[in-house]
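Dear Dr. L.,

I hope this message finds you well. Following up on our conversation about the binding site, I have prepared a predicted three-dimensional model of the protein together with NAP. For your records, I am including the exact sequence and ligand specification that went into the calculation, followed by the structure tokens. Please feel free to forward this to your student if that is useful.
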Amino acid sequence: MKSIKLGNSQFKASTVALGIMRMNVLSDADAVKVIETAHDAGINFIDSADIYGQGESENVFGRALKQSSLNREDFYIQSKGGIVVDPEKSHGSVVLGSRYDFSKQHLLDAVDGELQRMGVDYLDSFLLHRPDALMEPEEIVEAFDELQMSGKVRHFGVSNFNPGQVDFLQANLNQRLMINQLQFGIMHTGAIDFGIHTNMHDDDSIDHDGGMIEYSRLHNMTIQAWSPYQYGAFEGPFIDNPKFPELNDYLQELADKYGVTKNAIATAWIVRHPAHIQVILGSMNPQHIQESAAGADVELTKQEWYNVYFKAGHDLP
Ligand SMILES: NC(=O)c1ccc[n+]([C@@H]2O[C@H](COP(=O)([O-])OP(=O)(O)OC[C@H]3O[C@@H](n4cnc5c(N)ncnc54)[C@H](OP(=O)(O)O)[C@@H]3O)[C@@H](O)[C@H]2O)c1
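The resulting structure of the complex is given below.
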């Protein structure tokens, strides 16, 4: 498995990471299989959040890590915080927030809960999950300083932030923001569409994120692509989905050429971007995990990369 350097650190992370958002529904034995398969496939990075399964995903992961043949040090473990769950609207793996909260106490409590549920002493990184409109930098500065000094968190980052929000926060912090996690994949390409369609009148010319990919490349921040195989916001996977016949036919053609599966090609498409994007896959099926991870080592040609983009419904101006 190819690796990428995380932000400005020396840490080499696997290009494909495993997200545990959907782990709450697994038995402990199945969760052991999932993390051992991921590790065997070259994955050394786990992405979590306090809200996944309202905490249950981290409970399952923590028990699985203990019962597995693996150690804490086999994985770089990342979690996120800053969302207050609305338990009435949330069920199973679908978790909705009642507000965002970047107050010092909320962030400190979030990390303590994560460490306790996963049964670990420290997080390799902690991300602010979604920008809190009421964020007060002084509170975040105090929280991050305390988390770093106590050894509970080693690195920091954000998720779903635009460049202005990153600049604003970074100007106050004592730590470098190393990571920004954004939705990105073949069927979620807002982050590149508007660059290709600059100054045109069509929908693809709309800037949804303020140029996060170019900003991250300039500032040496790692972009992590969440929900890489979903279309829309959690509508379901596009792979094998009869709504996208042309795209699936072309993914199959490339899969046959490279001797892999469509999942691998969907991974390879993200990895082909020169921004060194890390793919956070969410499958809880060991076979899908192996197939998806294999895509990190497939290098699509430029024309194949553009062809996939066209089959997903885009064009060039
Ligand atoms: N920062 C954020 O705001 C944010 C938001 C959402 C998610 N995330 C992170 O991103 C991670 C991944 O998100 P995700 O789970 O939505 O990503 P995903 O990998 O795009 O989707 C996973 C889902 O697709 C299914 N799938 C994969 N390959 C398939 C195939 N060939 N055929 C049929 N179904 C297939 C999986 O089912 P199987 O289990 O059966 O394979 C699973 O239900 C999460 O775990 C979390 O860590 C972050």
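In brief: The longest helix spans residues 104-118.

With kind regards,
A. P.
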